[in-house]
Amino acid sequence: MKTLIAFLLVLAAAIASAEESYWVKKKPSSDTLTVRRVSIANEPDPQNWERMTVAQIAAYEAAEKAAGWVPVHTVEALPVPTSVSRRALLIALFRATGKKEADVLAFISQLPTEAARYEASIEFQAATFERTHPLVAALAQAFALTSAQVDDIFRAAANL
């Protein structure tokens, strides 16, 4: 009962919060808290999911611990989009790494051959970026980004 009350208090606070939020589902037959970040276009069924901020999820878990329960939660990773817009990718790249369009252009200007520089500059002007494109892999290597970081940047870009 304490758990349910704490959960409802946290959910009520979610309505008033403007900070980044996540969809949260407490499975009815367990103490598992399932958290999923989704884009506005892919919001889950509101009958089964509630929106909570990171702080509210932490408050929920603290209430569970205070009640003597050990909270368990799983995070469902969003699929990595196969492509995102140029605009969204540049914004997501900047937010994640501080790298700007000028940094990408500087990388392209350092490619070893004129053909490579020309082709990369044309590819960089494309309206969309494919996750598996060699230019994305080359930029990731140049900016010391792991594959998981690039996936996260693409996920973030899909939500812009």
Keywords:
single chain; 160 residues; alpha+beta; 4-stranded mixed sheet; disordered N terminus
What can you see in these coordinates?
The protein is an alpha+beta fold. The chain folds into 2 domains: 2-76, no CATH class; 83-158, no CATH class. It is built from 7 helices and 6 strands, in the order αβββαββαααβαα. Strand 1 (21-26) and strand 2 (32-36) form a beta hairpin. Mean pLDDT is 76; it is low at 1-19.
Element layout with pairings:
Layout lengths: L1 H15 L4 E6 L5 E5 L13 E4 H13 L5 E5 L6 E3 H12 L3 H9 L4 H11 L3 E3 L3 H9 L4 H12 L2
Parallel strand pairs: 2-4
Antiparallel strand pairs: 1-2, 1-3, 5-6
Helix pairs in contact: 1-2, 3-7
In one word, what is the shape? Answer: elongated
Annotation, overall tally of beta strands: 6
Main beta-sheet strand count, sense and barrel state: 4 strands, mixed
Output the number of helix runs.
7
* H/E series: HEEEHEEHHHEHH
How much helix is in the residues? 40-55%
Mean pLDDT: 76
Low-confidence blocks of residues? 1-19
Biggest β-sheet: strands ordered side by side in the sheet: 3-1-2-4
Radius of gyration: 20 Å
The computed structural class is alpha+beta
The percentage of residues in β strands lies in 15-25%
- Provide the domain count: 2
Span between termini: 39 Å
